[in-house]
Write a structure and sequence with these properties.
This protein is of the alpha/beta class. The protein has 13 helices and ten strands. α2 crosses α10 and α10 packs across α13. The radius of gyration is 27 Å and the shape is globular.
């Protein structure tokens, strides 16, 4: 059987050219994929750097509060990004204690409300000038809780009642005192003050407690559990009262009027919003904390938002575009490095 004639030289050349072009396209696609992967890794981790190691102390808040839950979930994220960094979580009374602990070197990082940070600065407390911001996180909402059948309808109705105003070093105490005074109520004389936190106050409501203040992210587990098992409602804090506080200046300028959404505690709110006030939370540190550590931690805070947000609803509001606004304290140099690296 005769063999087919050999291909003309030009035909063989054309096939080789097509093959070379196909290989070139494949190589270009592979190169593009590698570049995209490299950019992704650059976004997730600072390439060429070893994750920080050692031990840090992180102050959170009271049990059943959002600070503590957020801190625990952030600790999980830190362990994944920086496996050789040990994080010691410290339960505290809340914002006021947290600010003091960071300023005085007892903690390296903490969550604190902006009004508590400003209050510490205004009082010229020890080492106030060393405080630095890492990120603005989410907002705390003031929640004034009473039994559903209570005759307390306004803040003014608290006069003479047994009211929990939070622990002495908490952010709740700072806010409750101010709200009461703005309505003409002396927290020491005109009510029967109690110092319960979100971990103990809910179980006492309706027994030896007529009302309690709480300031935290929405929803707070301690209140959500209470709303699901007890008949409660929220006393409104009207915009006029918030405006009065805001107008006093200094740390009260961080208060703003808002509404607690109906979805926060559906069983207690009857599909209605509740007028109240909010204040932003900050993740703070000190100026002497290692910039590289702060840069890594800032990256973890931003990148873990969605994962933490599945468990702490308020954490979904953490955003790189707003995280840089850590007023009243300046950004730490390490945090600034991170935000510059991801600036569009």
């Amino acid at each position: 059987m005769p063999h087919p004639p050999p291909l003309p030289r030009l035909t063989r050349l054309a096939r080789l050219t097509r093959l070379t072009r196909r290989q070139s396209k494949i190589l270009q696609a592979v190169a593009a994929t590698l570049v995209a992967l490299g950019l992704l890794l650059w976004w997730l981790l600072p390439l060429g750097k070893t994750p920080p190691s050692g031990t840090i102390i992180f102050s959170t808040g009271t049990r059943a509060g959002v600070y503590q839950k957020y801190g625990g979930l952030l600790n999980d994220a830190i362990h994944k990004d920086m496996p050789d960094l040990k994080v010691v979580l410290k339960d505290t009374a809340g914002s006021q204690e947290n600010v003091s602990r960071v300023a005085n070197g007892q903690s390296d990082f903490a969550i604190a409300a902006a009004d508590a940070v400003e209050n510490y600065l205004q009082n010229h407390a020890p080492h106030a000038d060393t405080l630095r911001g890492v990120a603005r996180l989410y907002d705390d909402y003031v929640q004034l809780v009473v039994p559903a059948d209570s005759d307390i309808r306004t803040v003014e109705d608290l006069k003479g009642k047994r009211v929990s105003i939070g622990a002495p070093d908490s952010g709740v105490r700072l806010i409750a005192d101010r709200v009461l005074k703005a309505t003409g109520i002396d927290p020491d004389k005109d009510i029967q003050p109690r110092a319960y936190g979100i971990d103990t106050g809910p179980k006492r409501l309706g027994h030896d407690l007529d009302a309690f203040f709480w300031s935290g992210g929405l929803p707070t587990d301690g209140l959500r559990n209470l709303a699901e098992h007890s008949a409660i409602r929220f006393v409104p804090i009207q915009p006029a009262l918030v405006a009065k506080l805001h107008g006093e200046g200094e740390s009260t300028r961080y208060y703003r009027a808002t509404n607690m959404p109906a979805s926060a505690y559906p069983s207690a709110q009857n599909n209605a919003t509740v007028p109240t006030m909010a204040v932003s939370n900050l993740l703070i540190t000190r100026s002497d904390v290692d910039p590289e550590l702060v840069e890594w931690l800032t990256r973890t805070v931003i990148n873990s938002r969605d994962r933490i947000g599945h468990h702490v609803h308020s954490a979904q509001l953490v955003d790189v575009r707003t995280a840089i606004y850590t007023d009243p304290v300046p950004l730490h140099e390490g945090a600034r490095r991170y935000y510059r690296s991801v600036k569009p």
